[in-house]
Design brief:
Bound molecules: adenosine monophosphate
Pfam family, one: HGTP_anticodon
Keywords: Aminoacyl-tRNA synthetase, ATP-binding, Cytoplasm, Ligase, Nucleotide-binding, Protein biosynthesis
Number of strands: 16
CATH class of the largest domain: Alpha Beta
Number of domains: 2
Radius of gyration: 27 Å
Low-confidence stretches: none
Family: Belongs to the class-II aminoacyl-tRNA synthetase family.
Number of helices: 15
CATH topology of the largest domain: BirA Bifunctional Protein, domain 2
Largest sheet: 8 strands, mixed
Helix content: 25-40%
Subcellular location: Cytoplasm
Strand order of the largest sheet: 1-5-6-11-10-9-7-8
CATH architecture of the largest domain: 2-Layer Sandwich
Strand content: 15-25%
Main location: cytoplasm
Shape: elongated
Mean pLDDT: 94
């Protein structure tokens, strides 16, 4: 134990469990790579203004949860609390939208930081895989993203998740609804913070989890009744495409999500085995975001899935991913000469793609065989002076216990054959 511990609200990914995290990232990104999304990586921090404008001045993420700081050079930066604003900033900066090939489809994977109250499933440092499709308004694109997330979760074996779907309207109909909702909310008994929220972002009051607020919301005007014809038709197409793809969803009028930039389609993936932190992923359309951060009009849609919570969801469903053992062959040299010879064989095997490890530190046979078994290797390669004098090494199948002497020159080939 060192003097230091991981900071509050964070944890370390450690073998063997860390392999599950890698496999989850891989499983989420695989359908994206297969659907025209290119990999993008942006810095872990950005100008704080990008998030203030992009994510929204009234959101908890910006007002309470951002790790914002001034650098020694006087720059105002923040650790990224989410991915979309950065990805859009990068796409605009590189003029990807001008290359004449819209939508620009991008995926990313990385660490995000929010100063939240830590609890199970809610951390100050967490990991997301995300996807953005920038510059095109097409319900098939919204549907595509939802279908790809569904595919990723199913490929992992998850079943107890639900997809919540809503439309938040656009710049035509949302303001009319917003005004009607504000009128209604101003007539309620609300605390000062919430009244301020009514002024800045009334839709988010609908999302308030407190009983005292929720019970007053019966009879609030419904966005559904205010959606313009274009938004209604758009949403209906998204729903039809999902249904045609066999992806089940629930209409959820209360789904507004915690970020200001969403328009039209919003969705969330919730898992029923996770208690209060049940959202494993979410996203939606953000047609106005580009203009908010100084770009041209670029209607876009995207999502981010939480890696940490997806791992928790796997645990909740009792799913152990089938992760191949990191090591296939473990070499055990007995003596100096064997050490030199087997190290050569190990290097050759590794170069030909066989995952191989070696008993370092001059371990005795018993200890080395223990390490071989712990490594999960299928085969052990053992050689002592007598073997070498006869020009052979012993190849031991660690599952069956069977051991055969193989000519030194043929051992790499024999191992490849055995492992298939
Ligand atoms: P959001 O950007 O808030 O919609 O988050 C998208 C996904 O990221 C969520 O559904 C969670 O899976 C994950 N996520 C967000 N915040 C946290 C957090 N503090 N700790 C762990 N996962 C998080």
């Amino acid at each position: 134990m060192s003097t230091f511990k991981a900071p509050k609200g964070t944890y370390d990914l450690i073998p063997p469990q860390s392999a599950t995290y890698l496999a989850v990232r891989e499983a989420i990104s695989a359908p994206l790579k297969n659907s025209g999304y290119g990999y993008i990586e942006t810095p872990g921090f950005e100008n704080v203004e990008l998030f203030a404008r992009g994510v929204g001045e009234s959101t908890d993420i910006v007002t309470k949860e951002m790790y914002a700081f001034e650098t020694k050079g006087g720059d105002q930066l923040a650790l990224r609390p989410e991915g979309t604003a950065s990805v859009l900033r990068a796409a605009l900066e590189a003029n990807l939208h001008k290359a004449g090939n819209l939508p620009v489809k991008l995926w990313y994977s990385g660490s995000y930081y929010r100063y939240e109250r830590p609890q199970k499933g809610r951390y100050r440092h967490f990991s997301q895989v995300g996807a953005e499709a920038i510059g095109t308004e097409d319900p098939a694109l919204d549907a595509e993203l939802i279908i790809l997330a569904d595919q990723a979760y199913r490929a992992l074996g998850l079943r107890n998740f639900r997809i919540l779907l809503n439309s938040l309207g656009d710049k035509e109909c949302r303001p009319v609804y917003r005004a009607a909702l504000q009128d209604f909310l101003r007539g309620l008994e609300l605390d000062e913070d919430t009244r301020r929220r009514v002024d800045i972002n009334p839709l988010r009051v609908l999302d308030d989890k407190r009983e005292t607020v929720q019970k007053q919301l019966d009879g609030a005007p419904k966005l559904r009744d205010y959606l313009c014809e274009a938004c209604k038709a758009y949403h209906e197409q998204v729903r039809e495409l999902l249904t045609a793809a066999g992806v089940a969803f629930e209409d959820d009028e209360k789904l507004v999500r915690g970020l200001d930039y969403y328009t039209r389609t919003t969705f969330e993936f919730v898992h029923d085995g996770l208690g209060s932190q049940s959202a494993v992923g979410g996203g939606g359309r953000y047609d106005g975001l580009s203009e908010m951060i100084g770009g041209p009009a670029l209607p876009s849609v995207g999502w981010a899935l939480g890696v940490d919570r997806t791992v928790l969801a796997l645990e909740a469903e009792g799913i152990a991913l089938d992760i191949p053992a990191a090591t296939a062959v473990y070499a055990v040299p007995l003596g100096e000469e064997a050490r030199r010879v087997l190290f050569g064989v190990v290097t050759e095997l590794r170069r030909s793609g066989v995952a191989t490890d070696f008993a370092y530190g001059g371990k005795g046979l018993k200890n080395a065989m223990k390490s071989a078994n712990r490594s999960g290797a299928r085969l052990a390669l053992v050689a002592g002076e007598r073997d070498l004098a006869e020009g052979v090494v012993q190849l031991k199948d660690l599952e069956s216990g069977e051991q055969t002497a193989v000519a030194l020159g043929a051992v790499a080939e024999e191992i490849r054959r055995t492992l298939g």
